[in-house]
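Sample pair:
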Amino acid sequence: MMSVFRFKKFNVVNERSAMKVNTDGVILGAAMSILPSDRSMLDIGTGTGTIALMAAQRLLDCARQSTTSLDSQFKDENDFRIDAIDIDEPSATEAAANFEASPWSETLKAYNLSLQDFAQKESGKYDLIFSNPPYFEDSLTAPDERKSAARHTSDGLSYRDIFEFAKDRLSEGGRVSLVLPADQEAALARYARMCGLHLFRIVRIRTVPRKAPSRIVAEFSRTRCPEPTEELLTIQDEGKYTQEYLSLTRDFYLFA
């Protein structure tokens, strides 16, 4: 039987991708900043395409809810684009199929390319670049080579690559949104500054109240921000999802 993860407004076939639908990705898709003025986005390491699909849904919802009408924000509901890349061919193929089956098939496009090859092939700028990138820099290689390649920075993608790409390819008001382990926060911000990007918002994520945050959603732009916005998200408490987590994901999860 085909493995399908069902969201409220789209479904994701979850079989061939090296990285399956996961909590980190869903939190990034739900928490990252999206503006009604965004017209171009790039998902780096798209996997199943889940985060890109969430971004498409949120952008149209954001435009409809803004004080300006949808008609003046968009020429039509296809007046934006989201490019999604993955170096793993089965992942890119699965993402493309998930995009085609979604309500936003005209606006999402999957590429089976590394970030380096994509940078040479495409020359456009982006209002938002987002990624759930590899983060096991110092861990042993996992037994599943494809999953390992999707999660180890030694295989050709790191947040450094993303910032190097973003410094030239962000639009004037563009942002970079990443989800990473909390222990990489200082190094992340330091390298971003080297690329002319500055932290403006951070969401620290902990699984339960008694534990320290294990993940962060970090957002960067070209604008210097002396005091970045800081938020704390707790996923569960006493065996149940917290109200803040349910509120964050209510437009996506069937149970929220």
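Residues 136-143, 148-155 have pLDDT under 50 and may be disordered.
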